[in-house]
Amino acid sequence: MNRLLVTLLFIAVVLGIGLLIGISNPPGEWYQSLVKPAFNPPNWIFAPVWSALYMMIGFVGARLFLDHPRSSAMRLWLAQLLLNFAWSPMFFGFHQVELALVVILALGVCILLFIAMAMKRDRLSAMLFIPYGVWVAFATLLNGAIMILN
Description:
Layout: H1 3-24, H2 28-33, H3 46-67, H4 72-93, H5 97-121, H6 123-149
Membrane topology: Multi-pass membrane protein
Subcellular location: Membrane
GO molecular function: kinase activity
C-alpha cells in the first residue's frame, strides 16, 4: 500500500474519531457549573490544539504501522489512543472526574513509555509525541484541580 495513502488514512481516522468524540461529548452546562482553576484556558483553545495533536498522533501511527506493525511501540500507540478516546466520554459524558483522572494518568504513562521506546528506533515519532505529552500533562493537572475544587 502507498505510504502517503496509509499516512493520510491514519490521520483522517484519528482526527475524525477524535472530532466525533468531542462533538458527542460537549462540555455543556455541567462543565460550565464547575469551579475551575485560574489557569483554565478558554474553551476555544481545545479544538485547534487537539486537532493538531490528533494529526501528529495519526502521522506517528502510520509510521509505526508501516515500519514496525507488530512492535511494542505500536501496541503502546494503540493503548494511548484508546485511553485518549476514553477520557472525554468519562469526563464530559459521564461526569466521572475521578475516573477521568485515572484514565488521563494512564494515558500520560503510555505517552512517556512510547517516547522512551520510540527514541531508540524512530526519533521523529518520539519528538512528535513530546508536545502531546506536555498537553496531556497540562490536562492532567487541570483534571486534578477540577476534581479538588469540586
